[in-house]
Sequence to fold (660 residues):
Amino acid sequence: MKTLTKLAAGLSLGAALLGSTAAMAQDDDVRIALVVKSLGNGFFEAANRGAEEAAEEIGNVEIIYTGPTDTTAEGQIEVINSLIAQQVDAIAVSANDPDALVPALKKAMQRGITVISWDSGVAPEGREMHLSPSSHELIGQTIIKLAADELPEGGDVAVLSATSTSTNQNIWIEEMNKVMDQYPDINVVATVYGDDLADKSYREAQGLMQTYPDLDAIIAPTSVGIVAAAQAVADAGKIGEVNVTGLGLPSEMAGAVESGASKSFAIWNPVDLGYATTYLAYNLATDQAEAEPGAEVGMGRMGSATLDDNNEAAMSEPFKYDASNIDEFKSVF
Amino acid sequence: MIAKFLKSREAILLAAVIALILLVETRFAGFAAPSNLAGVFNDTSILIILALGQMAVILTKCIDLSLASNLALTGMVVAMINATAPGVPVIALIALAIGMGVVMGMFNGILVWKLDIPPIVVTLGTLTIYRGVIFLISDGAWINAHEMSGGFKAFPRAEFLGLPVLSWIALLIVGLFVVLIGRTGLGRAFYAVGGNPHAAVYTGISVGFTRFMAFTIAGGLAGLCGYLWVSRYAVAYVDVAGGFELDVVAACVIGGISIAGGIGTVGGAVLGALFLGVIKNALPVAGISPFWQLAISGAAIIIAVAFNARGERSKGRVILKSAEHAQ
Fold:
């Protein structure tokens, strides 16, 4: 039994050596695999468009867009194993599970494949770096900027959050409050919680408009809340008086933008994310940059990503959606 | 007659609702204005309709925890049909919603009636099943405002004699229930089955069938509410009305409908729902810290229930005493 394991280990080591030499023998196209959570999802299709755009800019890059048909970690492991067999140069994965993928990705790294995670991260031992679509600071700054941009004279705004214990929303609101001194004419009059329930969020938005008749904007950094608030504003006949903004998905907010209840809102742009991911994977795979804390890795037109102590980086502030681009994105995600 | 009404639980609850409204008025001027109260009633309409359905079930000593899931599933189905075929008239969608709700209610009822499974287990099961089916048919995707047709969203909002159609539907259902519960054999059978199932059998009432009918009626109302909910909030997704089943049970319990079955009135269920509705609408405007809101809602429920429990007990004693005197 023991000899058998030794033999197996020796064989796999041999295979690994063969694998790496074979990879070197490849033609000079850098093959980057974009592994997504599942195929047929508009968000990832859009990310692929961005990746192809980056590939075209760089020139010698081939994008392999792949993923399981359903959002499971097992499916992704299978895909990753087959990519290892194909000896791709880099794997960029949006993980269905942060831990389950680690062994397969470790194997890929041992074979000399560059592994990064994007959108939905992998545990640090299973990747060289992770690219988040945005950071807490940038989201907090964006949501107040969206409201303030529509209020050049200043005004009263209120925040409609998820639950009072939602970690993400609380951090974003905290980050928003840190930059409030840049907007001296904007008053945040209240923060209320819709618990990510459509009916409670609707009622809270109604309550805000009753309590603060001069309210100018509602900031809802949650996808359920922003839709419910837009509906409450429309039903109260206050379109044009109260602007609803925050974080939402274009497919869910298209109606609110069309009716004018929401002038603009934000969320990450999947096209930019796929684009930036491709640049990072390319720069790391071709050894033009090293993934280590403090390193700056180029992302083409998106600038460069600065890695933190966990080798994580944020791409940019959330992308702004309004009447000019909502039709393009509402069918995407 | 008046003296009897003044001592009834409904009168006390009505006084509590009025006191609550006045209390909120002191913190937020304009809350007690007729137009705002009409808004509160409209907001509570769906809760009232579901509370009446739940009341029929609870009267027969059963409970239906699947109402909110039933609502969510019918809501998702009608929203999906509307999104893919905007030409289907709203009235047909409403009929479909009620029909689907009835079928889901019957499914609960059959399991309770023919297989004799405890209702709490049956409906706990169907609660998850119906919720799961929503995910299966929708793939987790939302149906959003811009995908719904104008008529689909406009119907419950349309004004008729100063009140939205949604409110009128609730009033209509309340009227139907007053007749059903007070003036029909089935309505009286609900009380008989819940009050004393064994005695009910001797009077020729089928306990199982009566329960089946209660589940069917509750299911049909939940189906109707499915359409109303989705069109009112103009969005349908998997978690629509999550946890709402507990609000419905709370409304019934506050309204003095005994969980042990056989005791309760239509007025009680309506007032119980209104009591919760006033609290839900008052908390956002009363300037109370959100961190206290949950505690206040919960405390209100416990106080109301404690009050009811006391009421029920003393009533029991009175009956015994009068029985002793009669002998």
Remarks:
- The domain at 2-326 of chain B is CATH 1.10.3470 (ABC transporter involved in vitamin B12 uptake, BtuC).
- DSSP finds 14 helices and two strands in chain B.
